[in-house]
């Protein structure tokens, strides 16, 4: 099986977590796209969705799936999204696709967060994948200098603007031994909107696509 098949299989497995008559949070990226395509097959069973990016909202609408503004939703039963890395505690690095802030908002607002990924995403220590940090444009250089003080090597994501109109710094060279603490420290830098560590609110379930089927980590 190639990586795409593993992603599709794990997206199919995530459908088991979709409860009839509820609102579903939907993530961004190639794995989340497979989930959207599976969700389309059962779209009449759900009340609607909240999307973590404009791209995902468009894909959902393309399938005729109802997309709601988070502000009009009382409860999201489950949020399903991919990740760039996960450790065994289900702390994640996300934001490779640039949607980290809306992803984190929806993950926080959801009763359950089901992360879906192929097994290449499971690592012992987070940080090999550069950590995305969404930053208010005028604070770019200041935030970059503060990130260097934390031991990272920030790289400006050239030509990229988030759905919120901000820029992204991808921080290389981090060996993240204490994800919860680092998430907090980076969020405390003035000018940072969010960083791609999902550790204060980790996933509740990690579904991993492997050559031998779906592995479930909780
Ligand atoms: C987007 C994300 C994605 O979940 C992450 O980049 C994984 O993407 P893919 O499923 O394409 O490997 O955080 O901001």
Summarize the structure.
With 218 residues, the protein is of the alpha/beta class.
Question: What are the key terms here?
Answer:
218 residues; alpha/beta; 4-stranded antiparallel beta sheet; binds ribulose-5-phosphate
> Helical amount among residues, as a percent range?
25-40%
* Rg for CA atoms: 17 Å
Judged by helices, strands and strand pairing, the structural class is alpha/beta
Oligomer: single chain
The overall pLDDT average reads: 97
Please tally the helical runs, counting DSSP H or I stretches of 4 or more residues: 6
How is the largest sheet built, in terms of strand order? 2-1-3-6-12-13
Beta-strand portion reads: 15-25%
DSSP E strands, number: 13
Which H/E pattern describes the elements?
A: HEHEHEEEHEEHEEHEEEE
| Shape, principal axes of CA atoms | globular
**Separation of the first and last Cα atoms:** 24 Å
Bound molecules: ribulose-5-phosphate
Give the biggest sheet: 6 strands, mixed
Low-confidence stretches: none
């Amino acid at each position: 099986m190639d990586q795409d098949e593993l992603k599709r299989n794990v997206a199919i497995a995530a459908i088991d977590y979709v409860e009839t008559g509820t609102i579903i949070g939907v993530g961004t990226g190639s794995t989340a796209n497979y989930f959207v395509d599976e969700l389309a097959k059962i779209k009449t069973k759900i009340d609607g969705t909240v999307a973590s990016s404009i791209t995902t909202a468009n894909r959902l609408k393309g399938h005729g799936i109802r997309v709601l503004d988070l502000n009009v939703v009382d409860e999201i039963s489950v949020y399903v999204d991919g990740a760039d890395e996960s450790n065994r505690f289900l702390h994640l690095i996300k934001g490779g696709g640039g949607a980290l802030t809306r992803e984190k908002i929806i993950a926080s607002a959801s009763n359950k967060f089901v992360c879906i990924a192929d097994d290449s995403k499971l690592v012992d220590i987070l940080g090999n994948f550069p950590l995305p940090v969404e930053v208010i444009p005028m604070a770019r250089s200041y935030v970059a200098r503060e990130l260097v003080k934390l031991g990272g090597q920030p790289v400006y994501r050239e030509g990229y603007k988030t759905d919120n109109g901000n820029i992204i710094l991808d921080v290389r060279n981090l060996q993240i031994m204490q994800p919860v603490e680092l998430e907090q420290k980076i969020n405390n830098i003035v000018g940072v909107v969010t960083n791609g560590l999902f550790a204060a609110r980790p996933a509740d379930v990690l579904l991993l696509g492997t050559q031998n089927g779906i592995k479930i980590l909780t």
